[in-house]
Design brief:
Strand content: 15-25%
Number of domains: 1
Shape: globular
CATH topology: Glutaredoxin
Structural class: alpha+beta
Helix content: 25-40%
Number of strands: 4
CATH architecture: 3-Layer(aba) Sandwich
Order of helices and strands: EHEHEEH
Strand order of the largest sheet: 2-1-3-4
Largest sheet: 4 strands, mixed
């Protein structure tokens, strides 16, 4: 698999934002063995990025690479839904990325 780069867009330090960050960390550890590169962008602190990336709702997770780019919104609590939305089928695991 090419390098996996994910960007999570959140709006402030809210319970929903913190939950999405925790869920993303869990997904990355459980399904990618921690090998994914993840960034978090607070759209309240950097609204230009939200406009450029067309972030209409938060949290939004975007798979930057490998291409094509894909996105999913919500608190990322349903790992299978997140993985499917990001285009991973069958779902990767640390033993079978």
């Amino acid at each position: 698999m090419d390098a996996l780069h994910l960007t999570l867009y959140v709006a402030g330090d809210t319970p929903r934002s913190r939950q999405a960050m925790a869920n993303l960390e869990r997904i990355c550890v459980e399904h990618f063995g921690g090998r994914a590169k993840c960034a978090t962008v607070d759209v309240l602190l950097d609204p230009e990025v939200a406009d450029t990336e067309r972030i209409l709702t938060t949290p939004t997770l975007i798979r930057e690479s490998p291409t094509p780019r894909r996105r999913v919104t919500g608190d990322l609590s349903d790992a299978q839904r997140v993985l499917a939305a990001l285009g991973f089928s069958p779902y990767p695991s640390p033993q079978n990325p």
